[in-house]
Fold this sequence. Notes:
It is a single chain. This protein is 26% helix and 20% strand. By secondary structure, the chain is α/β, with parallel strands linked by helices. A hairpin with a 7-residue loop joins strand 28 (583-586) and strand 29 (594-595).
Amino acid sequence: xxxxxxxxxxxxxxxxxxxxxxxxxxxxxxxxxxxxxxxxxxxxxxxxxxxxxxxxxxxxxxxxxxxxxxxxxxxxxxxxxxxxxxxxxxxxxxxxxxxxxxxxxxxxxxxxxxxxxxxxxxxxxxxxxxxxxxxxxxxxxxxxxxxxxxxxxxxxxxxxxxxxxxxxxxxxxxxxxxxxxxxxxxxxxxxxxxxxxxxxxxxxxxxxxxxxxxxxxxxxxxxxxxxxxxxxxxxxxxxxxxxxxxxxxxxxxxxxxxxxxxxxxxxxxxxxxxxxxxxxxxxxxxxxxxxxxxxxxxxxxxxxxxxxxxxxxxxxxxxxxxxxxxxxxxxxxxxxxxxxxxxxxxxxxxxxxxxxxxxxxxxxxxxxxxxxxxxxxxxxxxxxxxxxxxxxxxxxxxxxxxxxxxxxxxxxxxxxxxxxxxxxxxxxxxxxxxxxxxxxxxxxxxxxxxxxxxxxxxxxxxxxxxxxxxxxxxxxxxxxxxxxxxxxxxxxxxxxxxxxxxxxxxxxxxxxxxxxxxxxxxxxxxxxxxxxxxxxxxxxxxxxxxxxxxxxxxxxxxxxxxxxxxxxxxxxxxxxxxxxxxxxxxxxxxxxxxxxxxxxxxxxxxxxxxxxxxxxxxxxxxxxxxxxxxxxxxxxxxxxxxxxxxxxxxxxxxxxxxxxxxxxxxxxxxxxxxxxxxxxxxxxxxxxxxxxxxxxxxxxxxxxxxxxxxxxxxxxxxxxxxxxxxxxxxxxxxxxxxxxxxxxxxxxxxxxxxxxxxxxxxxxxxxxxxxxxxxxxxxxxxxxxxxxxxxxxxxxxxxxxxxxxxxxxxxxxxxxxxxxxxxxxxxxxxxxxxxxxxxxxxxxxxxxxxxxxxxxxxxxxxxxxxxxxxxxxxxxxxxxxxxxxxxxxxxxxxxxxxxxxxxxxxxxxxxxxxxxxxxxxxxxxxxxxxxxxxxxxxxxxxxxxxxxxxxxxxxxxxxxxxxxxxxxxxxxxxxxxxxxxxxxxxxxxxxxxxxxxxxxxxxxx
Length: 1005
């Protein structure tokens, strides 16, 4: 999915430049306005920690372009701040005070104001402040907004009382939830997303005089108080002050219940008043108890608002609600079969509530936390990098529990199903166990390790309160120029099929009976269908070249290559399926390319009807926006095509409203809605969310544990593919003196790749783990480390050069979109320098093959290390012979980019290394030539007839090793084609035919 970490830049708002000392207006008793920014050039454009103005955004194209522009109509001075923007995710700018401080005291003022050049476009502009903390990156965010519904210059005045504490994102998780105003670090402006526009702004200043209501506030300990019928809720009212000073005036809170859905028969009405006297310490709490009454009637949940009126301080941002839990209704009876619970609940729901269940929003896009209940949202997600701060398992669980609490205020208290892209471990969480990407798992050829990595991922994900994982990707990658190719297990559908044991690792048994366990999650088969077959140059998304493009195939090829893994996934009971952004062009149907999110033929006809998929279909990130037509058409087309839940990260309000309108207009049949909601509710019941909506954190201590990392380490070792090993250079010996170089030897971010902590991933120390260099050092022996190979090379026995790619995700990583398949110039120099000076092993850490050209001859040992994740020790394990090399190529390794696409089964097939190639160590290679192959063929045939898979695979493996020894590095087209086809036959259980193909390769060598 295209993911952005919505509003998740740690330096979102980080302060202001020093302010002038406030002067008192003569005789007015009110401080004179204090300029914050005149935009005359006195404030530089500068990044933190320096003071100045800087931009930010979710993607590289999201930050606006800013300039100081001279204008005759400038409200103040000669220049204004002007800018242009076209934001797909989020973006804006910050005026920051230097992190070295000091912060500013704004507590003497009423608010902040500035001039805005209106465009009358109806867009809302967010304006935010940073309050308290050690510096701008460690302070609290307080937010408000204004609407651009005017033309020309207008002075926008915002009293500090209008700012509310941000509940969706806080840089440090919050401090005291009080807008103190004594330690202010700056302001920021968030510009509208999804539109192209420009703006101008001038003269930011503080105005007016403050009173205690700006320095003191009353807050409640929660916004929602669920209580069982007959129980009592306790609401805690807390008074807090700027700087924790005692109150200098009394603060009175008047409270009264009433106005909700509960009647007087459901609770004892409560009203009263409490005064916190002058001198009361900040943090003092008063409790209000609201009793409920018990009767014998089965009822939905009912609300009892506690209305608060506050004098002398700011009132809470929300009216707290006591909620009498739903009770006595059949859908709440866990003893009933799931289908009966679903039918009972569905029959009670309104169209609006059903539409809400079909709506999924990005958690950071919630305008108000209460929107979860107000719009009956069925799901929230965290896009890549969309994490709480601090990014810890505890903070994740607390955040998600807070969202689940909001669902308690709805009639039927239907829990959210929260989703994440845990595509190689719980990769959004810093400190989680990061597995090899799928391309490395495919290289293992080990269904058991695929299962184990899925099980560890599920346990870590569920322990943070997340019950749903947008994985695995069942794409069959057919062109390594695709930026998502590393998300695939390989180019052969039989290999992808074999690795689908990961689904059971994630979900448990195929009938869904394990989904309510604290270590299992709902899995997602993606991206349906044929996303791995898109043609180079067919994409129309931005600068992408392959991703989200068009796959043109015959129906036969579609069935055999791209659809086959989904048939297996359905048989394995996968709970959800996600369509692809890409388009499918079936040869012979004369329809041309059809976006998968609009393909009723494939979603309704093939997936749901023919394959009998019983789970629900979830759209990709804002994918319906790519459909032709207006928004109503997008909604209508996608839902009628079979989408059950729509991922509308920012547009959840518009989507829900439009969906309801389309049903009422008769353009979407309500039976289609009922089908979608039934599918969603079924999975929520199976997950046990109605009984346990909150995080079960008993397994949180195992996140990133030694036991989980041991599984990842084993997967890493099995994923290493030894392509060349002249003179038996590998395994290394501890007594050898090593020279280690290359950009990826000591970079945990590079070896983990994209989808690690952030969507695109990043180089550097992004998450705890062991780099390849650290693994080598821990293995023993003397090591010289020189990233650029500038250190003297003399006196070393062996060089190990670790090179490859830097992180990317999705179409951002497409070849032709700023990427290629060549090593960087620095890596090329490192290889050339080290391999010219000593015997050398080159490790390529990448998500796809890298082209070595004429360098291959100078390299003694070559290893495809893929993207191993956080456990570099696993690489060292095979380098030093603690484990044998057993990995095999999951994709064909081309000689040149001109050969792409190149795949097993192609009529013309002449690669550098064929699909399935992989040398071994610590294992004796069979001898005997053709007679031995004949005997192995007979053994393979006998095993096949007897259904003895293990014996059949062993016979084929021995034949493969024998052939590889014969071929050496002289891989010709006559050798490569049957060799690659043999591995496909092996994976489909045709052992005798596989040995026959290997025998043909042997004869051609």
